Amino acid sequence: MTKELASFLRQLWDHVVFPVIQTLQRTHLPQTCIWWCPTAQFSTPPWHAAGPYRKGQRNLDDLCISSYTPTLTALICARERNSSDPASKVKRFIAIGQANAVGQVGLPSVGVELDAIAQHLKDRTAFMHIEGEESRISRVVELGKHVEHSDC
Fold it and tell me: Is the dihedral of CA 131, 132, 133, 135 positive or negative?
């Protein structure tokens, strides 16, 4: 692996993937699978390969299976078809939108996109969206504690 690639995968780990893993480990049952649904420029990074890449530290592929889904609908439909446990038929979905992240260019259509996701998921799952001031990490973690989670 080149130094540049290792550096990029560490940055991906430090700034995105590791905070997700830490939150999941604190607030949920142990996860065996994470589904990534990246869009636009976020489709390019190799999320499954993120890690610290340092001796004695575990990378993402040591912690769980990373899977990708092209759309949220595809994931929901696949999980509905594959579910044999009646209790797992109750699906819950939280979408987090942050239009004005500190130090980043604003995203003007976050609310519209969250509404579109809600419309698409209605009648399929319990849907909650979080945006604005509510989208800060501590609030998302707090809300996530109240949602049941199933393993993939």
Answer: positive
